[in-house]
Fold this sequence. Notes:
The protein is an all-alpha fold.
Amino acid sequence: MEKTTNQKAWFLVLPVLVLVAFSAVIPLMTVVNYSVQDTFGNNRFFWVGLEWFEEMLASDRMWAALRRQVIFSAIILVIEVPLGVLIALHMPKRGVWVSVCLVLMSLPLLIPWNVVGTIWQIFGRVDIGLLGYTLAALGIDYNYTQNTFDAWVTVIVMDVWHWTSLVALLAYAGLKSIPDAYYQAARIDQASRWAVFRYIELPKMMGVLMIAILLRFMDSFMIYTEPFVVTGGGPGNATTFLSIDLVKMALGQFDLGPAAAFSIMYFLVILLVSWVFYTVMTNLDKREGK
């Protein structure tokens, strides 16, 4: 008997496809169009081929911004992933305190990015900010608007405060999925706390940790609002990351061609790293399924 297939379900997906086309595909094609052409206004374009890509690849400015971005993302991952796991391990597993801890951990994630930047901008000011005033009272010369090290510390601490909760919540979900039988077997074998973490908790958390690392890398590599509100990319270009440099190039200098080529390379880097993480996650799932 021949099996019939109902294709009417595509009508339910069609609005989503149209929405994606307008919100993603069409803007992307516009950027591609600008990356291979030059314009002098009046909607007149001139073909330049790969000239803007070659200019960006030879630009010390872009490589300096990329270097700052990679350093920032690496520092963020090194701090937030272990800290999030540590917090998740010490969160209560049952009782009323579970709800309290989950709500408290979720609060930083609910604050909009521009508000986070504004909070830390005021918080770090020496004249009215609690942090800046306290450090000045202790005799510590702290000024994130003029000192490069202070600006970096402020931006990193701000991001850790804002996003460590995401890693902690994902790690906590991984811990909650571990059956009690594993812990009972560990107690029978008199396994140490480190052995329980090394051979039971960490392998079971590996999947969600890879998701956490992927999400945090993507977000940290595209960070814009928080450091722009706090430091404006300064002092000098000390905290001018890729996204800030791209916006300055496109809107500040109105160099649409180089900015378009820059954004495409930016997109490809994030896409490549995301694909690597996805491949690793898929291999982990296959290994656990065996």
